[in-house]
Amino acid sequence: RNMSSAGPEGRKKMRECDGLIDSLVYYIQGAIADHEPNDKATENCVCILHNLSYQLETELPESYAQTIYVQRRNIPSNDKTPGCFGTRSRKVKEKHQDTPLPEEKSNPKGVESLWHSTLIRIYLSLIAKSTRNYTQEASLGALQNLTAGTGPMPFSVARTVVQKANGIPSIRTMLHVSHPAVKKTAVSLLRNLSRNTSLQNDIAREVLPDLVSVLPESVPGSDIACETTASICYTLYNLTQSNSHNARLLLSADGLPKIIAISMNDSNMFSKASRAASVLLYSLWSHTDLHNAYKK
């Protein structure tokens, strides 16, 4: 577990180690089957897999990059890391959203297991069944890592989480836990998932009112809570930016007063949340059909 967080070279060596990833997955599957999702060894295994999934998209061996990321060659280098906003970055994202992955192998080996639907379902199962905070956070974090890029693999993983494995209800539960790091990671995962335009309606229907309910009444007083608040605002931005129905859903969940209050804090220390809330407000105002409702 310690070695898996040693950096790119350490991750590369461990991913290439014959049988290591397979053994970790095998152990966790056994723990879940035996109804033992809270033991320490399971936590260690999930944390290792979480670390090995970090930067996976950019660190994949060339053989996988050629089969999975053929289209990346056609993307200008300055567009490889699209921001939250901007028309060019949106085109890059949309270009990948419809790119199918090569057909999934029924018996993945080694590094292939890291993005396979079997492991995605294991993470979702642990999120639902484990009460151990580190196990929950590592499972959420692994899914966050796998959905963080802009290539076809992250969008395929996102589709599996939302549509094939029905993972949103389990993630939604994590928004209401008291542990700040678990909540922050759950929101970060939702933010990644919400970038996928084809999934936005499904996500909004399941979780938008919950996102509004966990927004604070004003800018929170800690760094981690402030980051979480900013991430919630950017997730809501993704869900409502081009969807008037979702913006109305936010309005009916009484989100507007909270967002206004967060945006009005001008303290430099917590400007990240205020800036995110301001961006969201600006986007909400672009739905001209809702102006009368906003004013009320």
From TrEMBL:
GO BP: cell-cell adhesion; desmosome organization; heart development; intermediate filament bundle assembly; protein localization to plasma membrane
Q: Which GO terms describe its cellular component?
A: adherens junction; cytoplasm; intercalated disc; nucleus; plasma membrane
- Matching InterPro entries, A to Z? ARM-like, ARM-type_fold, Armadillo, Plakophilin/d_Catenin
Q: What is its main location?
A: other
Q: Which UniProt keywords apply?
A: Cell adhesion, Cell junction, Repeat
Composition bias (Basic and acidic residues) maps to 95-107
* Stated family: Belongs to the beta-catenin family.
Protein name from the UniProt record: PKP2 protein
Native species = Xiphorhynchus elegans (elegant woodcreeper)
The upper taxonomy is: Eukaryota, Metazoa, Chordata, Craniata, Vertebrata
| Gene (name only) | Pkp2
